[in-house]
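U., I forgot to send this yesterday:
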Amino acid sequence: MRNDYLDFEEPIAALEKKIQDLQSSKESDKNNLSEEISKLNNSIIKLTEQIYNNLDIWQCVQVARHPQRPHLLDFVEKICSNFDELHGDRHYGDDRALLGGLATIGDHRLVLIGHEKGRTTEDKINRNFGMSQPEGYRKAARLMKLAERFSLPVVTLVDTPGAYPGIDSEERGQSEAIANNLGLMSSLKTPILVNIIGEGGSGGALAIAVGDHVTMMEYATYSVASPEACASIVWRDVEKASEAAEAMQMNAESILKLNLIDEVIDEPLGGAHRNPDQAALLLKKSIIKNLENLKSQSISALLDTRYKRLMSYGNK
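Result:
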């Protein structure tokens, strides 16, 4: 039995445990056993649909943070026929929380940039849990300029709790690096496709999220701060994180209603962590479709639409 069920998934876990018990039993009537397992599988599907169709925003946050949710490198392996990682910001070093390089998705050659949280404990530490430092954003800026120079579209995959807030990051110009990226992306003369695949936290996400078309996966989140940070600021109580999540309306459906994104990408039943292959296929189809649309437009038209888009934020 898997040990990665979320609290609200316990009813699903109980049914799956029954199936495992039946499969390991010595019962001789295999026909009855098969029929019972089939009924339980149907019950699991119906129960999962019921639960996931009624998630509150805090539960969406938990799904976006699920330890088995596909990360950047998982998607790279499944949707890219080629990926050549490029390193370093040419100023300080190479940030391992924010990766980028030349990639091929379908028939499209592009520059791919995204956050990587890591999977094992050692890898998570090496990648700073997906929280980039200034050199990561400067590396991203360098790759974006490279994309512009060679007329390649930029595709970003956003998945970060936020930019790293340590003293060393501030000393090296964290806020300046993020602000520079916002300005660069607003006027970059090449198509930019943004995809929020997990957590879209604060300026750490926004620094690679200014684009011509912005998508969110169904159970991803996007917010000005993490729920815990918001709760600490507003109520001085991190235990109110669930209330903060509801107040910020940080789930995909709410963000779409605010016109801050353009599209919600469906996820497999029960979330991307339950079927990473299908999740990758859905993401790949969306990327190819949107790239074809963006590349059919002139650069001047893209820039004009991008400007109007940015100026429209906050208007009702």
